[in-house]
Amino acid sequence: MSNDTSSKPEPVIVRLDVTALNEARSILYDAYRNEPTFQHLFNHRKPGYNQRVRATVRELVDLYFDLDQEAVGVMVNDTLVAVAFIGDPDLRLNLANQLSWRIRMVLTAGFASTRRYLHYHERLRAILPQPLAHQLPLMGVNPKYQNRGYGRLLLQAVQRLCAENPRGTGLVLDTGNSRYLPFYESEGFRSLGKIKVGGFEDHILFREIQPEAKAAANQN
């Protein structure tokens, strides 16, 4: 009798380029359309909500690629199952100054949704720590591949990339879904503050990450 058993596919961390645009957009659309913050900002009770979320994700992904920001993903076999976009510490992106992005957003997501999103983004920027830190504005796992550890694997890869950058002191992310808080806390994140969004709170979280060069110097 053969003792052969099929092995579980090994996930691989990859850097993303423009060839992954459509797959990344699809994963992030599924990740954010049921997110409470997006539901409020883009008015899920009004017809066309899914289109507004899809347009917003598309414009954000395209903007971060245009700005040459880091994007990474998890591949299982030949399938991209999770993605994350990382804002450089020096970026401190002010969406209000991105005129072409704002125009595209108004045309696709609508004026009211664009205005609410910009206002939310300004409140988020006001909470960002000093000195500079990386931001994680977009992260998602394909629903078919959730609860398999790929989200944690991806977040740990993001943290390693942040440690390679000598200008950063940590990583900031936000979530309007409180059920994710234990996961982020288990990865060392702590609260920086909250933003009131409709009838709930959006949590701004931070994890200190020492640059590798500084960490090596401290050990010597």
What does this protein structure show overall?
Helix 1 (21-32) packs across helix 3, helix 3 (49-66) runs antiparallel to helix 4 and helix 4 crosses helix 5 (111-127). A seven-stranded mixed sheet has the order 1-2-3-4-5-7-6, sandwiched between helices. It has helices spanning 21-32, 36-41, 49-66, 99-109, 111-127, 150-163, 181-186, 212-219; strands at residues 12-15, 70-76, 79-87, 134-141, 170-175, 190-197, 200-208. The longest helix is centred in the N-terminal third of the chain and has 18 residues, at 49-66. The model is unreliable at 1-5 (pLDDT under 50). It has 220 residues and is of the alpha+beta class. A hairpin with a 2-residue loop joins strand 2 and strand 3. It comes from Marinobacter salexigens. This is GNAT family N-acetyltransferase.
Mean pLDDT comes to 90
Helix content: 40-55%
Strand order of the largest sheet: 1-2-3-4-5-7-6
Radius of gyration: 18 Å
What's the number of extended β-strand segments?
7
Largest beta-sheet details? 7 strands, mixed
The stretches of 5 or more residues where confidence is low (pLDDT under 50) are 1-5
- Report the order of strands and helices: EHHHEEHHEHEHEEH
Number of helices: 8
Approximately how much beta-strand content do the residues carry?
15-25%
Secondary-structure-based class equals alpha+beta
How far do the termini sit from each other?
Answer: 56 Å
Q: What is the overall silhouette?
A: globular
Protein name: GNAT family N-acetyltransferase
Domain N-acetyltransferase: 138-190
Organism: Marinobacter salexigens
InterPro entries: GNAT_dom
